[in-house]
Specification:
The protein is of the alpha+beta class. Helices cover 14% and strands 35% of the residues. α2 packs antiparallel against α3 and α2 runs antiparallel to α4. The longest helix has 15 residues. The chain is flat, with a radius of gyration of 27 Å. The two termini are 41 Å apart.
């Protein structure tokens, strides 16, 4: 039979369920790729591919997002019984960067009806502290992207810069071998405007966007800068957050560890892109790694990059919902487990910095218009949103710490400042609650109504799921929601 979503949800709520967790763990043994099939309870499986009930400690996954953009994922070690050295031969196998799939279901089900509930990667295998277990050590699925975006260099070893989206007033790098100024290490959309000491110089310039470079037809003296539209991998110019995050993950960094289309939550990125069409820009002037570049771009709209439980890259925006269609009812909560664990500090203002000037030039000797001179002398433009009522009620100063973004336009900076201000101008409470196995259906970043007989939650309040910890041994879920 095939278990429908409705049947699966009902099974999670069934106190008579005989729950079993299955682990399919990849490794290279004797030079051959194999899959070890393990379980935490007896499960027959198929005669050709049986499961060994040797799990001593099950997997626990903790994921969280926060207002400051610090998304986190941690996976606890899985321990396998090795009391008499039955598995000592495993330590000669290769486990690093191998795929792990975790399925949940009932001992009475066919294996095909089990639900895939987690996909991750191993860091390695280790001996347990008492020597009676083998420890399968997990790693964050995104750590495979912890490599430089590019290490393209000129003949003299100088790094070639990169440009993604639109980058204002960046200093290109001159290559003596080709006699060209480079603003991107590969094909780009093209040069917007080259400048010599702040003065536009467009008459005697030759742009070569297919190589991300340009040259002058006459000698130059002074500082050369330019604004440009960058990367055009595959002939497509991308200047939105979701587009660039996917580009970084699949086309940049170490080729052997890049993600593929199968590693991307396409629906999630499509929906994010539809809701966030703002143009952005980022210049890469050093050995910035892929994870950092993705975080810089995503945080421009308060979003964070984090893998789903199935290991697919997602973008989650920190946004307190005004309403929710899903709930965490009292029936999903372990009795008396809900409690407030944090209360936010109120702020009366939010300052967003945008349209970064990558080459600050405070002492130009040329004669650009005064507004241009001021622009070149300042690294950032900024917009500050202030709530006067909150400022007065809480007796606060309206001098917030600036938040750097990759946004480009005043309108987009203003909209983002107002969006964040709506979150921080009132106190927000984070509640922690232990959930029944039905909590396995709750997703990080979801909007859910939270109910309780206390804390003013009798009628329910919409909140953002900001933290989830899931244990695959007892199907216990700990959730945190911010309302």
């Amino acid at each position: 039979m095939t278990i429908s979503d409705e049947q699966y949800a009902a099974w999670l709520d069934d106190s008579t369920a005989q729950r079993v967790t299955l682990y399919r763990v990849g490794c290279v043994s004797g030079g051959v790729q194999v899959t070890r099939r393990l379980s935490n309870r007896h499960f027959t499986g198929s005669a050709a591919a049986p499961y060994s009930a040797v799990i001593a400690k099950d997997l626990e996954i903790a994921r969280s997002i926060s207002m400051d953009g610090d998304a986190k994922l941690s996976a606890g070690d899985v321990e396998v019984w090795n009391v008499s050295g039955e598995l000592d031969s495993w330590f000669a196998d290769v486990w690093a960067n191998q795929r792990v799939e975790v399925y949940v279901g009932d001992a009475r089900w066919e294996e095909a009806d089990f639900r895939l509930s987690f996909v991750g990667n191993l860091a390695d295998i280790a001996y347990g502290a008492d020597g009676k277990t083998a420890v399968l050590k997990f790693r964050d699925a995104l750590q495979r992207l912890n490599t430089p975006l590019s290490e393209a260099k000129f003949a003299d070893g100088t790094l070639i810069p990169g440009a993604f989206g639109e980058v204002p007033n960046v200093t290109p790098v001159y290559d003596r071998v080709t006699g060209r100024y480079y603003y991107h290490w590969a094909a780009a959309e093209g040069l917007i405007e080259p400048r010599n000491d702040g003065v536009p110089r467009t008459v005697d310039v030759t742009d070569e966007p297919t190589n991300g470079r340009f040259s002058f037809n006459a000698n130059t003296v002074g500082t050369i800068t330019c604004s440009a539209q960058g990367d055009k991998t595959g002939g497509i110019y991308r200047n939105r957050i979701a587009q660039l995050v996917q580009l970084f993950a699949t086309q940049y960094g170490k080729e052997s560890t890049r993600m593929t289309a199968d590693d991307i939550d396409t629906l999630n990125l499509t929906l994010f892109d539809a809701a966030n069409q703002q143009p952005v820009g980022l210049a890469i002037l050093d050995r910035t790694n892929v994870l950092t570049a993705m975080a810089l771009i995503a945080s421009s709209k308060g979003a964070q990059v984090i893998p789903s439980m199935l290991g697919k890259l997602r973008l989650i925006q920190y946004a307190i919902p005004a309403a929710a269609s899903l709930s965490i009812p009292r029936s999903m909560q372990v009795q008396d487990s809900l409690a407030p664990v944090a209360r936010s500090t109120v702020a009366a203002a939010v300052q967003i910095r945008y349209c970064r000037n990558y080459t600050v030039q405070p002492n130009l000797q040329t004669s650009p218009p005064p507004e241009h001179r001021q622009m070149f002398a300042t690294e950032w433009r900024s917009y500050t949103a202030v709530d006067a009522a909150t400022q007065a009620a809480y007796r606060l100063y309206a001098d917030p710490a600036p938040i750097d973004t990759c946004l480009l336009t005043p309108a987009d900076a203003q909209a983002e400042a107002e969006r964040r201000l709506a979150i921080v101008k009132v106190p927000r409470t984070t509640y922690r609650v232990e959930l029944t196995p039905a909590g396995m259906l709750v997703e990080l970043g979801e909007a859910r109504n939270l109910f309780s007989d206390r804390f003013g939650l009798d009628a329910g309040k919409p909140g953002l799921v900001t933290s989830l910890t899931t244990n695959f041994g007892n199907y216990a879920v700990t959730a945190e929601l911010t309302v």
